[in-house]
Structure formats: structure tokens, C-alpha cells
Amino acid sequence: MTAVTADAYEAAFDAAVAADERIEPRDWMPDAYRATLVRQMAQHAHSEIIGMQPEANWITRAPSLRRKAILMAKVQDEAGHGLYLYSAAETLGTSRDELLDKLHTGRQKYSSIFNYPTLTWADVGAIGWLVDGAAITNQVPLCRCSYGPYARAMVRVCKEESFHQRQGYELLLALSRGTPEQHAMAQDAVDRWWWPSLMMFGPPDDASAHSAQSMAWKIKRHSNDELRQRFVDICVPQAESLGLTLPDPDLRWNEERGHHDFGAIDWTEFHEVLKGNGPCNEQRITQRRRAHEEGAWVREAAAAYAEKHRTAQHTEPGEATA
Ligand code: BYC
Predict the structure, then answer these.
(1) 149 in ligand 1 pocket by Cβ < 6 Å?
(2) How much distance in Å is there from the Cα of 289 to the middle of ligand 1?
């Protein structure tokens, strides 16, 4: 490509982003834009499938058939979200195998939140209310992301996440209004999941390596701190309706800012979890690798089946098929 043509392509890309148009797989895009999308979308996809583990832990112990059916549907939805996101990432010229290999060898991340254990049934409610709630807050703006396949995948993901958030809220409400032991169990789960949920939004803006560029490219529409604040403001009245408290003595309404002030986040804990030292990092990745190995025969069978149909389609009428 000559320098003039390269400049023209870049100008067309910049103009499309400035005009809020979607960038599509066939369009020219800067290498760094592509790499940023692959990084974020892969991390997002990995989070969806690793996120199945803490909740699946409770499927066999759900307290009723209704709760079990709901939880199974939710965990299946997360697998579906992973599928949409890996497929969207593949439009950028990477393969699912490559992305999974990077996850399994620790070269790509997944969300910090899934390195915490689900100790009681109430944790299923706290994950739905807080973790899915944080995910929606982060993902609704991604429906307007500049990269078309990612934005479109997010529309369906967000619809399903909002059902997940409501089931978590409803589960916690039932516990909160139940026996004193059930209420205490719900409170304990919220106490443990609150701070890790705030960490899901990523480091504070002044320590966020990628935010400025991702916002200029309209991949991200809001900064990490803006979305975290939005989430806190949403959760405070919901916690009141639930009859539960949020474990932060510094949480209070600030009239001047029109937002809630909240206490300091333990960023040392966040960085330790990212480094692999969270309570469940090892367990999660070991389980993921095992699931991948144990699923090899399914992938092989699916590929053989697809191949059989591909050759059958190319067989002339009257010709013998295997
Ligand atoms: N965990 O410059 P920054 C879900 C990394 S779950 C781990 O601010 P960026 C679900 C970051 O990757 C949620 N790592 O980065 C719910 C970067 O490291 P690298 C999944 C994190 O990308 C229920 C470094 O820290 N959602 O959906 O501009 C059940 C500096 O950060 C985290 C998504 O992935 C973290 N929490 O902003 C099942 C949403 N935060 O890559 C599933 C899409 C930051 O330089 N992603 N890091 O080594 C995003 O919106 C953005 O990637 C983030 C981070 C806001 C998360």
C-alpha cells in the first residue's frame, strides 16, 4: 500500500468513527484498534465461560426444582454469550482455538470477579444481583461500540443479563424476607461480593492504561470510574428495597455531586487477583483446561459430521455416498 493510500484509509476510518458509523470486518482498521478489540472481546468471552463455574457449583444443590431450572438456564446463557463473543472476535481474523489456547496458557485474562468462591446458596443471588448488574452497567454502552459485530452481540447479551440480574434480586429478596438465618446468609453474600463487584469495572481512570485510546475509538463510551459510580448509585436504593446493607461505612449521598460517595477500593487485592493469587484462580483455570480436554471428542465428532455433510453436498445425484 502506498503512503497516500494508507493515509486515505486511515482518514476514512477516523471519519467513520467521528460520524458514529460502525466499523465492519471488511473495513480497513488500524492494527492497534484490531488488537485492542481482540484483547477486550477475548477477555470478555473468557469471562463468560469461566463465569459458568462458580454458579454451576450450585446446580446440584439448588433448593427447589424451580430454582434449579432457572440456574441451569442462566449457566447455559453464559455459554451462549461466550459463543457470540468468540464468533465476533473471529471476525477480526483470530481463531477460537487460538483464543482458548491463550486463556489456557495464561496469556489472556478473564474477569477478576470469577476468582472468588461461591460459599452458600445466597451467593447465586448475589452474583445475579451484583455481578450481572455490574456486567449490564458496563455492557449497555458497549451496544454502541464502534465495532459492529461486538455491538450487535452485546444487544442480545444485555437482554439476557437483565433477566439474570432480576433472578438474582428476586432470590435475595426471598432470602432477605425469610428466616433470620436466611436473611443473615443473604447479608453475608452481599458483604463478600460487593467490593469485588466494584473492581469489575477495572482500575481507576488515572491508572487505566487503555481507556483514553479506547474511548477515542468509541470502543468504550464511558470511563471505568463513571460506570462504577453509575453502578453504586443504582445499587443503593435496590439494597434498601432488599432490606440489606452494603458493607461500606463511607457510603453516603453527596448532594453537591448528585452521586453517592463511597469508600476506598482495595486495589492491592485487585492486582493480586490479576496476578493469579485470588482465592480460586488455580481452581478455575484447572477446571477450564480439564473441560476443554474432556470435550475434545465432541469437537472432533462435530467436525467429522460437518465434513461428512460437506462431501455429501458435493456428490452428484445418483453417485454413491459413504
Ligand atoms: N478483571 O486499561 P484498563 C460477565 C485489566 S463478566 C481482569 O482499564 P480496559 C458475566 C485490563 O484487561 C464481565 N482484568 O482496561 C457476568 C488491562 O489488562 P491488559 C466481563 C481487568 O480494557 C455474569 C488492565 O487491567 N465483561 O460478563 O480499557 C456471569 C488495565 O485496565 C479487569 C467484560 O469483559 C477485571 N475486572 O477496561 C458470567 C466487559 N479490569 O489487557 C459472565 C468488556 C481491567 O492490558 N470489557 N482489567 O493486560 C471492558 O469493558 C473493559 O475491558 C474493562 C477494562 C472495563 C473490563
Answers:
(1) no
(2) 21
- Would you give the DSSP letter of residue 296? H
Q: Which residues touch 321 (CB under 8 Å, ≥6 apart)? A: 311, 312, 315
319 is a domain residue:
no
Q: Using CA atoms, how far apart are residues 311 and 316, in angstroms rounded to an integer?
A: 10
In the chain, how many domains are there? 1
Q: Determine which residue's CA is closest to atom 3 belonging to ligand 1.
A: 208
Inform me whether the pLDDT recorded for 320 exceeds 60.
no
| CATH, residue 16 | 1.20.1260.10
**Cα-based angle 79, 82, 84 (whole degrees, multiple of 5):** 115
Beta pairing, strands 252-254 & 259-261: antiparallel
Is 320 within a domain? no
Q: Whose CA is closest to atom 40 on ligand 1?
A: 202
Ligand 1 centroid vs 47 CA: distance in angstroms?
A: 9
Confidence of residue 250 (pLDDT cuts 50, 70, 90): very high
Confidence grade of residue 5 (pLDDT, cut at 50, 70, 90):
confident
What is this structure's pTM? 0.94
Dist. CA 283 → ligand 1 center (Å)? 20
Among candidates 312, 199, 212, 207, which has minimal Cα distance to 264?
199
Would you say 71 and 59 are in contact if contact means Cβ atoms under 8 Å apart?
A: yes
pLDDT per residue as tens digits for the range 31-65 = 999 999 999 999 999 999 999 999 999 999 999 99
Q: Does residue 88 lie within any of the structural domains?
A: yes
Q: Please give the mean pLDDT across all residues of the chain.
A: 95
**Overall average pLDDT of the 129-138 stretch:** 97
Domain membership flag for residue 134: yes
Give the domain range for residue 250: 2-313
223 C-beta closer than 6 A to ligand 1: no
The response to whether residue 203 sits with its C-beta less than 6 Å from ligand 1 reads: yes
Q: Whose CA is nearest to atom 37 of ligand 1?
A: 202
Verify whether ligand 1 is closer than 6 Å to residue 155 (CB atom).
no
Q: Whose CA is nearest to atom 23 of ligand 1?
A: 132
